[in-house]
Structures are given as structure tokens and as C-alpha cells.
């Protein structure tokens, strides 16, 4: 597979203008305040024995998300280790859910707690009952509620993801001062969003090949994947709905969240990525407000990024920042 975007020399300096939508901060302040106003307790049920695991404890968690609706998550911890443990809050890639706990054993093996957050409507355990305007005809989630930020699917999903950080404080054995956000593709975009909305409650964020960054660039340059849903939608509604659509999407753009995020950040980018073009990743990285920001470049990788070679990079990076568990 050839390079799918600009060369690395051009990408390093790629920092497109990214005007923030009017009322962006107030929109998110109001959205999160409304979600929190519904209250609701975090519930956790021990289910380790169902999965025949000997070194890991597993809890099936439900916490209140958008509109107070329950969001599913797995909480995994190394067995027999006293807390409080640093916790890696993990968000999932597009069209996937939390899956099974046996799919998420890396972080507990390294001594961390991990909260694996289901994606509403994408995972099987968290339905999406949210509003829609009836305009979506393209498959997937990108154009669901694209008539306005109030109705869009990602308003609900990002709210769920912020509420997952809220839930950490109610789960025993977790260190609320060492909350790390992680995820790849959509999960990486969600990690950026939560970092921008959660302030100093986040100790670090690790967005891998992040999706949901600079939607217009993504729609114009991605060769495959969910950005094409926007293209398909606008093909029939262009030109009169183009600006309206991107105005909506701007409220969920990782570039704007990056402009508000200050926690140490470890990005990754793949230069042969046909789904999340490298320029969209660098648009967010180069706008990131925190001074401690690093990007791992995988020059011959596609959307899989560094695959199995990436976790050792992340573990070492967290250790350098004092975020490794004390075992």
C-alpha cells in the first residue's frame, strides 16, 4: 500500500485553521450538566468465574450516561493487588462494543485497572435510544442527527465517555488522580474528546490513529471507512446542506477538543492509513494545547497502526510520567 497522504515533512507542519463553532464551550457545558443532573448510581457485579480467569478480577459495570441511561463497561483488575490502582479508561473503535473481558487482558497484566466502555448503538449491551431528525439514510452513525449538534449521535456517545471518567470515582480500588484515556480510531477520537472536556481529572491520554478529527479533511481525503458516510450523504444533499452538516460535525471534532486538552498525550499515526488520513491526525496533534505531547509515527502501517508493537511504547511512556502501577 502506498502513502495515502502528504509526506512526513509536510505533515509535521500541518496545522490548518480550525475556527471553533460559536457557542462550542457552552454547548458542552450544558450537555454534560444535563447528563449529570439525572443522577444515578454506578453498579458493578463480579463475574470473574464466568470467564475462568485466574489472575484477573472482572466486574460487569453499569454507569449513567447520556440522559441518565445505563452504559455498559467491563472493569478488569489484577487479582490480589491492593489499590488504589491507576486506571486506563478504554474507548472502542467504530462499529464495535466492549466485547468480552477476555479480549482486554493487556492492561491488567501490566498491573493497571481498566474500564472498557461500550459504545451506545454499536456494542450489543448499550442501546441508543437518542433523538434523531429522520434525515439519515447513509448506513452507520456519521450522519445520524446531522441536522443539528443537539440531535447528533456523537453528542450522546461523547457524553457517555465523559461520564465513564465520572464513574471512576465511584468504583472501589481505583486512583482518581491517575486516570489514563486510551483508544484506537474512533476510540482515539473519543479519548481526545474526553481529554478536552475533563480538564485536570485526566492524567494522560493516548489516542491511536484517531478518528473524528477534522471532519472536512477526512471527508475530502479518506479512501475508505466511515468518513465516506459523510461523502455519500452530501453527494445527494450538496451544496445547500454542506455547511450545515460540517457546522454540526464541528461540535464533535477532535481538533477542537485537542485545543482544550492539557494532559500529557501520546498520539500515534500510520502514514499508509486509508481510513484516518495522516493529515487529520496531525491537525489534532499540532493543535493540542498540552506541552507534553508526543506522536509515534508508523511509516509503513495502515489503519492498524503499530499493532502489537504499540503497547510496549505506551507502557514505557506511562512509566516515564510516573503513571505505572506500584507492584
From TrEMBL:
<dbReference type="GO" id="GO:0052689">
    <property type="term" value="F:carboxylic ester hydrolase activity"/>
</dbReference>
<feature type="active site" description="Charge relay system">
    <location>
        <position position="303"/>
    </location>
</feature>
<dbReference type="Pfam" id="PF05448">
    <property type="entry name" value="AXE1"/>
</dbReference>
<feature type="active site" description="Nucleophile">
    <location>
        <position position="185"/>
    </location>
</feature>
<dbReference type="InterPro" id="IPR039069">
    <property type="entry name" value="CE7"/>
</dbReference>
<feature type="domain" description="Acetyl xylan esterase">
    <location>
        <begin position="1"/>
        <end position="314"/>
    </location>
</feature>
<feature type="active site" description="Charge relay system">
    <location>
        <position position="273"/>
    </location>
</feature>
<dbReference type="InterPro" id="IPR008391">
    <property type="entry name" value="AXE1_dom"/>
</dbReference>
<dbReference type="InterPro" id="IPR029058">
    <property type="entry name" value="AB_hydrolase_fold"/>
</dbReference>
<dbReference type="GO" id="GO:0005976">
    <property type="term" value="P:polysaccharide metabolic process"/>
</dbReference>
<feature type="binding site">
    <location>
        <position position="94"/>
    </location>
    <ligand>
        <name>substrate</name>
    </ligand>
</feature>
<protein>
    <submittedName>
        <fullName>Acetyl xylan esterase</fullName>
    </submittedName>
</protein>
Amino acid at each position: 500500500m502506498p502513502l495515502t497522504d502528504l509526506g512526513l515533512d509536510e505533515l509535521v507542519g500541518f496545522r490548518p485553521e480550525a475556527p471553533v463553532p460559536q457557542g462550542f464551550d457552552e454547548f458542552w457545558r450544558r450537555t454534560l450538566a444535563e447528563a449529570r443532573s439525572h443522577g444515578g448510581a454506578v453498579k458493578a457485579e463480579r463475574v470473574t468465574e464466568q470467564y475462568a480467569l485466574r489472575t484477573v478480577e472482572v466486574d460487569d459495570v453499569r454507569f449513567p450516561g447520556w440522559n441518565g441511561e445505563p452504559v455498559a463497561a467491563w472493569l478488569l483488575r489484577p487479582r490480589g493487588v491492593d489499590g488504589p490502582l491507576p486506571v486506563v479508561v478504554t474507548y472502542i473503535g467504530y462499529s464495535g462494543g466492549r466485547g468480552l473481558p477476555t479480549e482486554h487482558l493487556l492492561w491488567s497484566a501490566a498491573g493497571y485497572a481498566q474500564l472498557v466502555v461500550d459504545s451506545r448503538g454499536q456494542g450489543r449491551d448499550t442501546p441508543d435510544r437518542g433523538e434523531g431528525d429522520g434525515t439519515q439514510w447513509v448506513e452507520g452513525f456519521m450522519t445520524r442527527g446531522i441536522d443539528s449538534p443537539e440531535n447528533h449521535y456523537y453528542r450522546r456517545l461523547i457524553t457517555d465517555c465523559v461520564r465513564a471518567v465520572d464513574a471512576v470515582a465511584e468504583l472501589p480500588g481505583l486512583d482518581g488522580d491517575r486516570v489514563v484515556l486510551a483508544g484506537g480510531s474512533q476510540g482515539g477520537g473519543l479519548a481526545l474528546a474526553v481529554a478536552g472536556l475533563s480538564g485536570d481529572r485526566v492524567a494522560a491520554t493516548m489516542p491511536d490513529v484517531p478518528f473524528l478529527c477534522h471532519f472536512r479533511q477526512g471527508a475530502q481525503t479518506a479512501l475508505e471507512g466511515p468518513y465516506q458516510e459523510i461523502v455519500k450523504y452530501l453527494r445527494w444533499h450538496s451544496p445547500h446542506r454542506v455547511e450545515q452538516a460540517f457546522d454540526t460535525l464541528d461540535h464533535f471534532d477532535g481538533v477542537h477538543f485537542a485545543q482544550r486538552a492539557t494532559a500529557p498525550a501520546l498520539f500515534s499515526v500510520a502514514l499508509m492509513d486509508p481510513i484516518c488520513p495522516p493529515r487529520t491526525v496531525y491537525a489534532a496533534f499540532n493543535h493540542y494545547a498540552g506541552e507534553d505531547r508526543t506522536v509515534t509515527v508508523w511509516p509503513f502501517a495502515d489503519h492498524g497502526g503499530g499493532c502489537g508493537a504499540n503497547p510496549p511504547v505506551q507502557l514505557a511512556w506511562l512509566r516515564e510520567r510516573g503513571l505505572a502501577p506500584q507492584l
